[in-house]
Design brief:
Alpha-Beta Plaits; four-stranded antiparallel beta sheet; 8% strand
């Protein structure tokens, strides 16, 4: 049945090569159109399942409060100079006159001057009024404006001291008066790609607006600018890695075939595969994520084997005297089943990603499965069709005959064939030693596996010298961490008892005594804000005694222009957000922050049954991603190993031979985990994919050795002869395939992006381990099995 399918495909390619090529060209055009639909997504939220509480809470905050995505503008220098203060007061109005920014990208601007109180000068000294400073600023002289701001800073410091928070003051103005922080809230309706584009005019206008202030430096950073820089860096890295990998593959192909047209035809199949895969990604709306960076080098490394097998078999048929038509048909029919088996096992390895709870890894797996199947399809349709088009001309036939004579003169066993066969036989003769060493290696790997660490910090995907990262460091130095975690509180928020409960929660999470890796408090009370803090501040340090008094106080604030404070409370008063700004610290810091927020929330809601609390933001999402990494590793690699073992067992019709062939990737995975620990690297959102990749790509080594050994042994050769013949015939091909595939991953290891560099390096090492296991360990296992079967047969005789 399978052979009939392949014969049908081969016949169509042979008889109608132009039609086949045109159909594939049409599909390629559709795929190119789909590539234009690809959007980028690099957020934590995108890596976690939508049903997860932290993701649902994040989406709810976006819907109710407009999200927590921000761009921050920091002014450094003489920020209390009147010219700077007036520029800050007019910044929002300036942006409102920019239609390509206001509402399109920025929905609100918050400055530290917005809710400053206007002080009336009296005989007894300045007295606070119900009016806000921005309302009166136009009527004030420069020195009067500066004096008003300094009065507000002093009053805020006094209030903070009375509340037990010495050192606090006006949020957004540094204690030394050298820096001022403005926050622009980003339109949550824009996706990551749109935000990355819209941030450019925002930055341009902002630098133009503040750029003329003498002695003042402008720094800009935030979610959109970080994503933009990440996207630009990712695209540069992807193009660079793809280019280098392409050159490497071209070199390997040329050394394999020594014919330029063969190289071009083979690489054509791979490039069309990549176009179809990326086009599919666009049409089914899969975003381009960090994991997507590995797709193109991966396709180059893995898919090349299918085209090489078909091309090699074509030339084998030509050397038998067949014409291009018969040779192309026979190459597909004879090689197609074996290549299909290889493609199927590889696809099963990638398909295991579908059970991951990380959406970006699921999407990566789907695209890799599609890439493997598309490459196989094109190798048995497009490649034979184009070969026929090239070789059916009489001049091509004459050229083939000349080249074939030269090729025949160079044929014969090479030193590599002899070396590999000798090593395999030596391994087979010392089976006990090989077994002991293998067992010791596995035990060592098991011990090291207990020490493997995990990491989920997406900032590691960016270089520290990108503009937004450098600006973020400066902002953090002045104002502490600006990454937001938050608790979403539901209930009758404006009841005084509930406001008091929120304040207790804020005090509890900021008074644990836990310090970050730099010795600073994990959560600083000054960096925690809610509507309860707004009420406390507006009512001179106390919470009003009734809900009606709270409402009256907030209405008064809103009437005086203090509406920006209300962004922490929903319109119906039933939902509030407690904002917790933190520095992006180590993995343990983020886990501790998330645990502190959740544990404190459990206690507060237990004491106040009318309140419900859920949590999200950077530390919580990072903690949840971290918790997903090990389960993803275990589930995907376990399922991949099981599926591949089952299909190989069914093909060989032997449980032992199936498990023997699969053992090479098991050893590769064990050594992969050990290598991570020895190198001091962590299991992260990239390296978590390696095990399934190694299973999918590395199982080919075990299949080829086992299949050829069984063929030689069943053909009458003794065990030694079977081992020597097996490795002598397939060893060079395996080394070539391993060099090609591992080489493509090794190229990824030259990336400037740390997680990508680790991913490429460890994958290349793991595939090399799998190759060595197939040449050193597997022959011993197969020889033991064959000897056992022979002894068993002799006893029966």
């Amino acid at each position: 049945m399978v052979e009939k399918v392949f014969r049908g495909l081969a016949t169509q390619s042979e008889k109608r090569p132009v039609l086949v090529s045109l159909v594939i060209l049409a599909v390629t055009a559709v795929a190119i159109a789909g590539m234009g639909l690809i959007k980028s997504e690099y957020s934590y939220k995108a890596m976690l399942p939508k049903k997860l509480e932290s993701v649902k809470t994040y989406n709810e905050v976006e819907e109710i409060f407009g999200g927590t995505n921000e761009e921050q503008v920091m002014l450094e220098g003489g920020v209390l100079e009147p010219a700077v203060l007036r520029a800050v007061l007019g910044y929002k109005s300036f942006l409102q006159n920019k239609p390509d920014v206001w509402e399109t990208f920025v929905t609100d601007v918050i400055t530290p001057l917005d809710e400053m109180t206007y002080y009336l000068q009296t005989q007894s000294g300045p007295q606070p009024t119900d009016q806000l400073l921005p309302e009166k600023s136009d009527a004030l002289g420069d020195e009067e404006l500066r004096a008003q701001v300094e009065l507000n800073i002093a009053a805020a410091a006094e209030r903070a001291k009375a509340l037990g928070m010495p050192g606090a003051g006006i949020q957004g103005i540094s204690q030394d008066g050298r820096a001022l922080l403005i926050t622009a809230r980003i339109n949550p309706g824009r996706d990551t790609m749109e935000q990355s584009k819209l941030v450019d005019p925002f930055e341009k206008y902002t630098r133009e607006y503040f750029g003329n202030l003498p002695g003042t430096t402008v720094y800009l950073s935030g979610n959109a600018s970080l994503n933009r820089d990440a996207n630009q860096q990712t695209m540069r890295e992807t193009r660079l890695l793809f280019g280098i990998a392409l050159v490497f593959i071209l070199l390997v192909l040329f050394l394999t075939f020594r014919r330029v047209s063969d190289v071009l035809l083979t690489i054509m199949v791979i490039l069309v595969t990549i176009i179809w895969v990326m086009g599919l990604s666009g049409w089914i709306r899969f975003p381009f994520s960090y994991q997507s960076m590995a797709i193109m080098p991966l396709m180059l490394g893995i898919d090349i084997a299918y085209a090489i097998h078909v091309m090699s078999r074509y030339y084998e048929e030509r050397r038998k005297g067949n014409d291009p038509y018969v040779s192309s048909t026979n190459s597909v029919v004879t090689t197609g089943v074996a290549v299909f088996l290889t493609a199927a096992t590889t696809a099963f390895g990638f398909a295991s990603f579908s059970i991951s709870n990380m959406p970006t890894i699921v999407q990566f797996g789907i695209l890799c499965v599609a890439g493997v199947l598309i490459s196989f399809l094109l190798s048995v349709t497009l490649l034979p069709a184009t070969i026929v088009l090239r070789d059916r001309r009489p001049k091509a036939q004459e050229r083939w005959e000349r080249k074939d004579r030269k090729r025949a003169e160079r044929s014969g066993e090479t030193w590599l064939d002899r070396t590999l066969a000798g090593i395999a036989v030596l391994s087979e003769h010392h089976r006990a030693a090989v077994g002991v060493v293998t067992l010791l290696v596995l035990i060592a790997c098991g011990v090291l596996a207990t020490r493997v660490s995990t990491e989920a910090d997406l900032s590691k995907m960016m270089k520290a010298d990108t503009p937004s990262m450098k600006a973020m460091e400066v902002i953090n130095d002045y104002f502490g961490g600006q990454n937001i975690g938050f608790a979403l509180v539901k209930g009758d928020i404006l009841e005084p008892a509930n406001l008091e409960a929120m304040l207790r929660y804020e005090e509890e999470i900021s008074s644990t005594g836990l310090l970050d890796e730099h010795g600073n408090p994990l959560i600083d009370r000054k960096a925690v804000t809610s509507i309860a803090d707004i009420v406390l501040k507006a009512n001179q340090g106390t919470i009003p005694g009734s809900k009606q008094e709270v409402i009256s106080l907030l209405m008064k604030l809103r009437g005086n222009g203090g509406g920006s404070s209300m962004r922490l409370l929903s319109e119906d008063g039933k939902t509030a957000m407690i904002s917790v700004r933190v520095a992006r610290g180590s993995q343990s810091d983020m886990e501790n922050i998330a645990k502190t927020m959740r544990d404190a929330g459990k206690r507060v809601t237990a004491e106040n049954p009318g309140l419900e609390m859920t949590y999200s933001g950077l530390p919580v999402l990072m903690s949840d991603l971290l918790a997903s990494i090990v389960p993803t590793q275990l589930k995907t690699s376990g399922v991949a190993l099981l599926l591949c073992a089952l299909i190989v067992i069914l093909v060989f019709r032997s449980v032992f031979l199936g498990l023997a062939a699969t053992s090479v990737v098991f050893l590769g995975i064990a050594l992969e985990i050990a290598a991570l620990v020895v190198l001091g690297w962590s299991l992260d959102f990239m390296t978590v994919m390696i095990s399934s990749l190694v299973i999918g790509a590395g199982i080919d080594f075990g299949i080829h050795v086992t299949h050829r050994f069984r063929e030689e042994w069943h053909g009458g050769a003794d065990v030694d002869q079977a081992i020597r013949s097996t490795v002598g015939h397939v060893g060079r091909a395996l080394v070539s395939a391993a060099v090609t595939t591992a080489g493509a991953f090794a190229i990824i290891a030259i990336s400037d992006i740390t997680p990508l560099r680790r991913f490429g390096g460890i994958t290349a090492l793991s595939l090399t381990f799998a190759l060595l296991a197939s040449l050193l360990v597997l022959p011993s296992v197969l020889a033991w099995y064959a000897n056992r079967m022979e002894r068993k047969g002799a006893r029966k005789a």
